[in-house]
Amino acid sequence: FKKFSKIKKLKNCKIIVSQNIPQHVGLGSGTQISLSVGYLISEFNNLNFSINEISQISERGLRSGIGIQSFKTGGFIVDSGKAKGSNSLPLTIFNKNWPKQWKIILVFDKKISGIFGKSEVQEFNKVKKEVLNIGNINCKTVLMKILPSIIEKDFANFSSGIQIIQDNMSKIFYRNKKNKFASKKIELIFNFLKKKKISGFGQTSWGPTGFIFCENINEQNRLEKTIKNFLKQEKISNISLTKIDGRNKGSIKINR
């Protein structure tokens, strides 16, 4: 409210949040709540701000524009990132509907949260110093495997591409540390899936939340059951699984 009031005179209002995305677990909740509140302030005061204007006022999109484009349209998104010193929002270079038959399982570790704020900035500064070779491999994987797979609905090629990028994420984010993911418990699940030659899993942002892509609803149900049995057998606690679909629409406008 303070950021918007510096630009325009605002009427007093009260916003009640009845349901929200868990914070600091790698799901981009900060961007979504900021854009939602900014959008409501704009609507309530008849400011007619665009989502891009709201993003800049709210200081979102400082590194990635994925959360902003998700708010606008949903779907599978790739952006260009930002040039050093640029004041522009990251440019969306690919945005296509998520295949409806492909499903997702989110894996939550209830006992830990990811890094954020100053700690996140410090970690990003360390990432910048990593060798460019890994970035080149990721770019090639996105262009040659992941994007064609989304267009052609080739799940096997898509999931193998995701695995390449996730393996590289572990090398960059965690360097020489023994762990490859934020949550050791979720890493145990992923090691279990790897032994079963399952691919298409990884960590969302800095985690700890994990994701597993599934080719269809039958595979989603089968994997959920398999993982639950593994958790029970290994006596791994405080892990929850949530079955979801991809979202191919942006924010929903509510008439006042």
Helix content: 40-55%
Please give the alpha-carbon distance between the first and last residues.
20 Å
Biggest sheet, open or closed, and with what strands and sense? 4 strands, antiparallel
Please tell me what the overall shape is.
globular
- SS class: alpha+beta
Overall average pLDDT: 91
Instruction: Spell the H/E element sequence.
Output: HHHHEEEHHHHEEHE
Widest sheet: strand ordering: 4-5-3-6
Question: Which features would summarize this protein structure in a list?
Answer:
256 residues, alpha+beta, two-stranded antiparallel ribbon, 6 strands, globular
Please provide a written account of the structure.
The longest helix is centred in the middle third of the chain and has 21 residues, at 132-152. The protein is built from nine helices and six strands. Helix 6 packs antiparallel against helix 7. The chain is of the alpha+beta class and 256 residues long. Strands 4-5-3-6 form a four-stranded antiparallel β-sheet. Strands 1-2 form a two-stranded antiparallel ribbon.
